[in-house]
Amino acid sequence: MKLYAVGFVFLLAACGPKKPEPGVKLSGRVEYSGPRRETKLVSMDAEADCEKLHAKPVEEQLIAVAADGALANAFVYIQSGLEGVTFGPATGSVVLEQKGCQFVPRVLALRTGQTLTVKNADPVSHNIHPTPKENRDWNQQQPPGAPDLQRRFARPEIMIPVKCNVHNWMRSYIGVLDHPFLAVTDAKGEFAWPDLPPGSYTLAVWHESLGALTQKLTVAPGTPAAITLRYKD
Fold first, then answer.
1. Hey, which CATH number is domain 19-46+65-85+180-233, 2.60.40.1120, 3.40.50.620, 3.90.78.10, 3.30.465.10?
2. Are 116 and 86 contacting, i.e. CB atoms less than 8 angstroms apart?
3. Cα angle: 185, vertex 108, 91; to 5 degrees
4. Which residues contact 101 (CB under 8 A, 6 or more apart)?
5. 50 — alpha (psi -120 to 50), left (phi > 0) or beta?
6. Is residue 34's pLDDT more than 90?
7. Model confidence over 128-182: pLDDT tens digits?
């Protein structure tokens, strides 16, 4: 009986979720090589208190690209290759701030079940309204000095637009996935994952104006990897 019990436990373990192999570092960069586009001025005429928060007109850069082509605010993630691999729950929270009557940051990366903390740093009321297709819709007023809002998204979704129903120029986007290999590129167009399991993947990028692109990627055990993805207009 004892040998049978041990064998039964071993069988259950073998049929359980696959655990990730020890990971290696992946460094990445997203670039844009198309023509530079003119920035658009954000009209805050409808809210004098918002205009007062800025010493000069606010420019909206839908394509935030540096002189060397580095593209910021691109959402990068592993699209396929992690099927059947389980990861621990996300810890900590991701902050979306309303500052200067704008959402900061423009693009966020969030895991399923992870806390989204929404702050209002402005002297005016805002209305935070994500409009998901796969998750529950919610719409919350947040007056000046109000407590932070905390919400979670239960299902993966790329992307969730966020708007303010009071100030129609305010926009943000949230990418939600059930694994930790997601990121938003910084001002240098860069992102990094320190522990991507070895394997073959499809790496995907989403950008609000440039759309989506994908690229195949193979990561070898024990060997740091690097990749560059380029948008061409």
1. 2.60.40.1120
2. no
3. 105
4. 44, 47, 50, 53, 122, 124, 126, 167, 169, 170
5. alpha
6. no
7. 999 999 999 999 999 999 999 999 999 999 999 999 999 999 999 999 999 999 9
